[in-house]
Structures are given as C-alpha cells and as structure tokens.
Amino acid sequence: MTTHAPERRTIDISRTEGIPFSRLVKVEWRKMLDTRGGFWLLAITGVLLVFAVAIVLLVIGLDEDVRVSALDWSTILTIPLSLLLPVFAIQSVTSEWSQRTGLVTFSLEPHRIRVLLAKVSAVILLVLATIVVAIALGAVANVVGAQMGGYDARWNLEVSTLAATVFVQLVYFLMAFGIGMVLLSTPAAIAIFYVVALLLPFMVYGTLYALFDWAQDFIPWIDLQFATAPLLDPNDSVSATNIAQMAVACTIWVVVPLVLGSRRVLSSEPK
Amino acid sequence: MIEVSGLTRTYGGFTAVDDVSFTCEPGRVTGFLGPNGAGKTTTMRIMVGLTPPSSGRVTIGGHLYRDIPNPGRHVGVLLDAGAQHAGRSGREILTIGARTMGLPDSRVDEMLAMVSLSDEEASRRLRNYSLGMKQRLGIAHALLGDPEVLILDEPANGLDPAGIRWMRDLLKGYAHRGGTVLLSSHLLNEVELVADELILIGRGKIVAQGDKKSLGALDAQVSSLVTALDPAALVRGLEAEGFQVVPEGEGFRVNASTADVGRAALEHLIVLTDLRDGAAGLEDLFLELTADTQREVAPGVPAAPAAPEGAHR
Ligand SMILES: Nc1ncnc2c1ncn2[C@@H]1O[C@H](COP(=O)(O)OP(=O)(O)OP(=O)(O)O)[C@@H](O)[C@H]1O
Ligand SMILES: [Mg+2]
After folding, report:
1. Domain boundaries in chain A?
2. Are A100 and B92 inside 8 Å of each other by CB?
3. Helix axis angle, A21-33 relative to A36-62, nearest 10°?
4. Range in A127-131, A170-174, A236-240, B288-292 the model is least confident about
5. SS3 at position B18
6. What is the mean pLDDT of residues B152-157?
C-alpha cells in the first residue's frame, strides 16, 4: 500500500462549471440585506411608508374636500423609497472596500465585471420589489381613503407613468451605484449622492430656478429632478428638448460615474 | 501545483516582488518565509488575481487563476482573516462562501465543527471575534470548497499553541492526501515543523529555497562552542593545532568540529567544562540570508542626534 495519494500536478477543471450568474445575483442580494445596517434601512423605510399613508389618510379624514387618486398615492409613496434605499446601492459596492470583503468576493469570482453586474442586478431587483410593495400599499390606501372621504376611488395610474416612476427610481439608484464605484468609500459616496440628489435640487436649484430666467433654461440640463419631472407628470407632454435634457443629465450623473467607477473597480487592488 | 515564474511587481519606483520563481509541489507543504515587507503577501495576492503582476506569471495546476471556473472549488485562499464584514456572523460569512461556490449549507456546519467553532460562537458577529477565532474561521473558509491547493498567508497568526499544533496536523494531513500547500510566515520555527520545502524571500527577492536538509547544508562552516577550566591553556592548545579561536560568551568559538576540539583537549590535557556544536542552524541562516533586508541593523534604540538642527556636514 502506498502512503501517498497520486500526485496531481495539473488540476482537472473540465468537470467544474463556472459560477452561474443567477447564483451571483442571489449571493449579492443576500449580502445586501444580511447586515444590521441593511435591516434598519429596510425597517425605517417601511415605517416611513406606513407613516406617509397614515398622514394622508388623516388629512382625508379631517378635510372633506381632499380627494387622493391612485396617481397621487404613487407619487407620495415613492418618496420614502428614494430617501434611504439608495444607500443599499452605494454600500453594495463600497462595503467590499470598507469592510475589505472584496478580498474574498473577487478571489471567489475573479471576473469582477460579473460581480459588478450581479450587484447591479440585485439593486434593480430591490428597486422593483420596493415599488411593487409601495404600489400595493397605495392601492389599499386608495380604497381606504375613498371610503373615509366618501368619494369614488380613482384608478388613474397609467402604465406609462408607472414605467416612468420605475425608470426615474432606477436612474437614481444607478447614480448611487456609480458614485459608490468611483469613490469606493461609504461615507464619501453617501454624502455626494445626497448633495447631488436632494440638497442641490431643493436648496440651490429650486431657488435659482424661481429667481432667474437663465436658471430655468440651464438647470434642467444638469439636474435629474428637473430633467425627469415632465416624465412623471401625465399632464405634461414630453418634448424633444425634455428628452435631450434627460439624456444630458443622465450622462453626467449616471453614465459617467458608471463608466469611470467600473473602470476603477476592475483595475484597483482590494486591500 | 503552483508554478511561479519570473514574477515582478513594482509600485512606482519600488519593487515589492523582484523576479520571483518557485514551484510548490503537490503532496508537500511549502513554507514561504521572509521578514516584514519582504513581498510574501504581494506574491500571494498576485497568485489569486487580486493584484496584477508587472511581469511574469503564476499558474495553479497548469491554469491561470482567472481561467479556473468556480476557483473556490480548486484553490483555497486565506489572505487576511480580518477581511470580512464585521457585522456578519461567522456562520453567515461561511454561508455566503458556500452559496457562491454552490455548496450545500451542511458544508458550513462541517467546516465550523472542523475548526472547533461552537454554534454559539458561530452566531456571534465577526467584530466580537478574537484574533484566533477569526483565524479559525478564515481557515474554514479556505477549506469550504474542498480544494486541491491551499494558499494561506500567515495562517498561524493569533492561534494558541493547541491551535498551532492542530493546524500543523491539518496541513500535513492535507498534503499527505496529495494536496498542495503554500503557507507564509515570518517565523521560522513556526514553519520549520510543518513545511517540507522552504522558500526564503527578502526585499522581494528569493534568497534561498529547498528542503530543510539542503538548506541546512548551505551552512557548511563547522564550528564549536567550548569552555575550559583554564581558558588560557585552551586557547594555546587549540591554536597550536592551527584552529582559529574567537572569544564568545563565557567561552570560545572554534572553527573545528566538536570531535577535533575534544581530541585537541585530550592531547594538551585540558579539562573542558562545555563543548557544543556551534553550527548556525536554520534560524541563523534565515537571519543571515535576509540580513541586508532586515530592518534591525543592531539591537538597541538608536541614539538621538548629537547636534541640534543646522549642524550639517
Ligand atoms: N499598493 C502598494 N503601494 C505601494 N507599496 C506597496 C503596495 N502594496 C505593497 N507594497 C509594498 O510592498 C512590500 C511588500 O509587502 P508585502 O505585504 O507583500 O510584505 P509581506 O512579506 O507580506 O510582509 P509581512 O510579513 O509584514 O506581512 C512592502 O514594502 C509594501 O509596503
Ligand atoms: Mg504579509
């Protein structure tokens, strides 16, 4: 009997399958939600949704003239979704660096582009899943609100508006993802994202827009909120200029960060 | 089998790994030894594609790492046991690894049992792990996919004596079954007991490699350490035989074997009180070979500059 197993100088890889993409997506989805931070982000978002419904119902109960349609509900309930959830998109990338898990992630799947695509897919699934929840909640609230207010429920949420809502939400999450990849730092990426997505539009652009003519011409080209506003309003018709503005703003805040960021992730050394 | 050929990695003008070539054979444990900053971690990172080499290449079992499908099933890697999400439990960390590799969750329990992490410990968050527990978890993670090749960067770091013994037996058994093991350390005596082959690296360059015997033979100089009742007579007697005698410690170092020294003492009727082999041993060899790469030039705290600023020469 020999004591040594036969020596294997080469490894037979012919019978090993690569990691299927769907498995990578499942793993990235799990990694997004399995930490305490992820739990609280979801929990607080849930509370905000319920809170928003409660406040609107309260107003309906108090004021007889108020009528809230399905479209209104969807507009109201997508706000809580855009507040905290983009942090998931940011952390999905940055935690690989800040928590240094990239060492394991990228040695288990050395083709980093696949990991990135799996992460983006998980983020997109999160956007879709949360919008489904919000719409379902909105539908219930629409019935309850009509009962309370003594009016007929209006089901006026068009498919095109819903699609636009999903699109705009995706735009913001992809921007968060891109900024995360460019900076590879959780606090820096969160700060930049909220300045660009919330602070500038409300505090700076809003004021400029109201005061100056040139700002009204200029801001929709560089701000996602102004650029995408016509898309979300079913009463607005979307002009060619609107489309061009959206394309420019998306290029600045989504395409450029995604391109620069993925190059950075593909070439940098996780330490 | 791991084959490293002509591997170089530069950072700006600094060469972290300098034309490194070596082979790790299956069925053997290869120790990768060098002082701090020698380039061990960098070499291992290049092996698994985390750092691109400036030139040269590494194949594992004949393949580039990135060409190995589901590499966790073939190559077990532990680079830094602390590089895991601090907020995840040990079990969750292993579960993520197992899911990525397509292994059943039962494998996680097997590995936890193997590294002796209890259920309660496995459910603690990593931030509350001790150094040794992190290390055990890291070893469990490297072994999850039942790989043929193991690449471990300072795996003994933080393990208690029983843990070190356990790991030694584990790696020996693993190699015995035909596996290839590469483990790094900056402590010779840690590696000496488990490694069949040693690769010594200093400042990015390989300074010596081979099995323990052939490396020991590198230290060809015979020498003895000797003390006598009458030191003056001893020196006279040994010098009369043509040996060089240098004072060292309580006695002298002589460039002769212990047998020659004993014979000389007998002829000159000298009473010896101690006679020992003074060969350098692997430890000294290691220090010597990497001497010009050491940070510590001489023991002691460097003296403060004598003159205040401005006293330029
Ligand atoms: N990204 C980097 N930029 C600049 N220098 C680097 C970089 N990565 C590594 N180095 C340098 O390369 C050298 C080798 O580092 P390495 O981590 O490989 O050493 P090591 O042998 O693992 O040391 P230790 O025993 O302390 O772990 C060090 O001088 C280190 O500072
Ligand atoms: Mg190191």
Report:
1. 21-267
2. no
3. 70
4. B288-292
5. strand
6. 94
Whether B311 shows a pLDDT value over 70: the answer reads no
CA of B36 to the centre of ligand 2 (A): 7
Does residue A5 carry a pLDDT above 60?
no
Which tokens sit at B60? Answer: 């594992």
Q: Flag whether pLDDT at A3 surpasses 70.
A: no
Put simply, the answer to whether A19 touches B70 (Cβ < 8 Å) is yes
Digit-coded pLDDT (tens) for B250-281: 889 898 888 999 999 999 999 999 998 877 66
Q: How far is CA B81 from the centre of its chain?
A: 17
Asked if B22 contacts B29 with a C-beta cutoff of 8 angstroms, the reply is: no
Q: Which among A26, A102, A108 has the least Cβ separation from residue B97?
A: A108
Rounded to whole angstroms, how far apart are CA atoms A230 and A237?
A: 7
Average pLDDT value for chain B: 89
Give the H or E element holding residue B149: strand B149-152
ipTM for the whole complex: 0.91
- Is A197 in contact with A130 (CB distance < 8 Å)? no
Range of weakest confidence among A107-121, B14-28, B52-66, B289-303:
B289-303
The ranges assigned to domains in chain B are 2-217, 224-277
Q: What are phi and psi of B63, to 5 degrees?
A: -125, 150
**Does residue B46 or residue A220 have the better pLDDT?**
B46
Give the CATH superfamily of B2-217: P-loop containing nucleotide triphosphate hydrolases (3.40.50.300)
A2 touches chain B (CB under 8 A): no
DSSP, collapsed to helix, strand or coil, labels residue A67 as coil
- The rounded Å distance from CA B51 to ligand 1 centre is 12
Closest by Cα among A23, A190, A177 to A93? A177
Give me the residues near ligand 2 (ion), CB cutoff below 5 Å.
B 41
pTM: 0.87
> For residues A101 and B84, is the Cβ–Cβ distance under 8 A?
yes
Share of chain A above pLDDT 90, in %: 76
User: Which among B7, B8, B10, B14 is the best mutation to test ligand 1's pocket, defined by most ligand atoms within 8 Å of the CB?
Assistant: B14
Residue nearest to atom 24 of ligand 1 (CA): B36
CB-based contact B162:B10 (threshold 8 Å):
no
Cα B265 to Cα B236, B257, B269: the distances in Å are 10, 13, 6
